[in-house]
Amino acid sequence: MTQMNWRIVLAARPKGLPTEADFRLEEVPIVQPGEGEILVRTRYLSVDPYMRGRMNEGASYAPGVGLGEVMVGGAVGDVVASRHAGFAEGDVAQVHSGWQDYGLASGDGARKVDPDLAPISTSLGVLGMPGITAWVGLLEIGHPQAGETVVVSGAAGAVGSLVGQIARIKGCRVVGVAGSDVKVSHVTDELGFAAAFNYKTTLDYGAALGELCPDGVDVYFDNVGGTISDAVLQHMNVGGRISVCGQISQYNLRTPEMGPRLTWLFITRRLQMRGFLVFDFEKLYAKALQEMSAWVQDGRLSYREDIVAGLEQTPAAFIGMLTGDNIGKRLVQVA
Ligand code: NAP
Ligand code: FER
Description:
Layout: E1 4-10, E2 23-29, E3 37-46, H1 50-54, E4 75-82, E5 92-95, E6 102-106, E7 111-113, H2 129-142, E8 149-153, H3 158-169, E9 173-178, H4 181-190, E10 195-198, H5 205-212, E11 217-222, H6 226-233, E12 236-244, H7 263-268, E13 272-275, H8 285-297, E14 305-309, H9 314-322, E15 329-333
Parallel strand pairs: 8-9, 8-11, 9-10, 11-12, 12-13, 14-15
Antiparallel strand pairs: 1-2, 3-4, 3-6, 3-15, 4-5, 5-7
Helix pairs in contact: 2-3, 2-8
The site of 3-(4-hydroxy-3-methoxyphenyl)-2-propenoic acid (FER) has 9 residues, from helix 1.
């Protein structure tokens, strides 16, 4: 009897915020691995903001998902068949097999995960792509120094919640921006941020920043862009650094947003702004993961996972994350 695989494919290219009708759940036969490949039964899959870009025609750093093709993304699960010398049946592997029950992956591109070191879900969060993004973007681009003020937008999300804690570990005073009072309390009461404000209920971001950052802002870790970033830039100190990680406030816009012209500030305050893509820092992955694991183990870095159950819930879990219903790393538990 042929074993079947459930998967979610891109059914239509979204206009603005994706809807569930842009996805389709399908049942197809499981394909056995070819030479060098492994077959992985997904236990957790990751939904991330970058997937919104991949739903468009012609993304930049990687091709877009074709209509009818399985949605891309990171996943972790059990190796159920292997034709790669590095993996045996029963191993746990982190792969890029997308939104499906069973995924084929190249063994060379897969990461073996030791379930005794940490819960395997962390390979998609604090000890995976988002964790490395936080580490690289803050330390390699923001260069935070003890005593400085660091502002983080998207503060309660997968990346932002870790950025703020790493900055705190480095001796900085951390101020967050997030989209609910519960998120504001979470980052201040549980993650050690010095302060935070809710951008959905605050009318004047500039006034809030002036109050919460009396010494100005030395490092801004930008996850969101838009009017929040316009306000933070105006509070930067001389010599400030801006690490541009994401612009989620813009991903679902149908028409581009206009903003104030702030470039003059970069001259008078000698600011540096640098965008980055985590994948360009592969040489630092091992170091980042080693430091992040050590901080998790000694209790200085905490992480929260926001887990939704059921492959069929993936589109809703993804759309919900884009609109801010997650705290910490949004994952889908599949098996
Ligand atoms: P996340 O923060 O866990 O989830 C996305 C969050 O974005 C939501 O929870 C929501 O929180 C916030 N958001 C949505 N619309 C917003 C808006 N209009 N204005 C302000 N905030 C909004 O996601 P993540 O995985 O950690 O990713 C965070 C950012 O990092 C994204 O921009 C992503 O693209 C970027 N990223 C970049 C790289 C890279 O290599 N450069 C790698 C990974 C991630 P609120 O409730 O606070 O609105
Ligand atoms: C992300 C946002 C954008 C991300 C990658 C990109 C890995 C890259 C986009 C592009 O090159 O088109 O969150 O995460």
